[in-house]
Design brief:
With 196 residues, the protein is mainly α. The chain has 8 helices and no strands. The longest helix is centred in the middle third of the chain and has 27 residues, at 80-106.
Amino acid sequence: MGDIPLSDEPKPVTLVLQDVTGRDPQAARDLLPLVYEELRNLARARLRKAPPGQTLQATALVHEAYLRVVGAKDPDWSNRGHFFAAAAQAMRDILVEQVRRKAAIKRGGDRHRIEGDQAEPAIEPASAEVLAIDEAIERLSRQDPRKGQIVNLRYFARMTTAETAAAMGISVATVGREWRYIRAWLERELAGMELG
């Protein structure tokens, strides 16, 4: 009789995700402590690959991405893999938006015009690289949504091949084959682009 009541036991992430998709407001509050450290690690990994001069901190990126993901109109997370893929996509979107915002300011904004020989490049090479990679991944996703999802899970959510396969409901061999193709495709696409 000294057992803890079931309602006080922590719920697995998947159950809380189902409650969030069911629009339970308490579930959204319960979810953050369960996934915060993993999201923070994911944010740190994303920021390590960000261009120099990045001013966004991991904590801010986690909170912004969390708000976007949990606030989505129709979240459809069948498991934690889907949730982290959505969070990784949100982080990618936030970082790309920030690069574009900075590039727009550098292109003019409230500044005065100068002669061409006095001008500096509008985008630093690293920022151009971020945009080029994002555009290539968007093209791939339009051509083959499954390959786009694999990129989000493997590269952006940093899932293993096995975790990606489980999240997508496909075989490990299929993910491995698709990932090899994706990497070769991206190398080919990016080789032809001027990145700075």
